[in-house]
Write a structure and sequence with these properties.
Elements: H1 4-28, E1 36-39, E2 42-46, E3 51-54, E4 57-60, E5 63-66, E6 74-78, E7 84-88, E8 99-101, E9 104-106, E10 113-115, E11 120-122, E12 131-136, E13 140-144
Antiparallel strand pairs: 1-2, 2-13, 3-4, 5-6, 6-7, 7-12, 8-9, 9-10, 10-11, 12-13
Length: 145
Amino acid sequence: MMERRKFVKDCCTLAIGLPVAGAVFASCTSRYFAQIQMSGNRILVRKSEFSFLKNEKRQERNFVFIRIEDEFPICLIKLDDSNYTASLMYCSHQGCETQLEGEIFVCPCHGSEFTKKGKLMKGPADSDLKTYKTESDDENIYIYL
């Protein structure tokens, strides 16, 4: 039989530990929203947005997110050093926000799946994600809306 004092201590530890653990795990999956510059129908994203320091070592992101006002986010994915793809994270089935899971976009509402280039792989959606033309130079990526 558990002593009252141990029971109270265990409950307090759990009550304090769960929120802390939740914050730690949430930070592991946080989205990085790139800084952008808008000019007419063009978004400029610096290639440096894909680099960051972790434990004093330079790391590379495979993708960044872009927020434009109250719209769904755009996911900008690095295919190689000079090629990028940009897709609106809006599922064409019923308008849920897709999630990037590994190399594919998945709709959490009904399970539609799309390639990292926004092409439909599995329904119930019946069309691709909206994608945008991209270009890049030595320092920047341009997304044309």
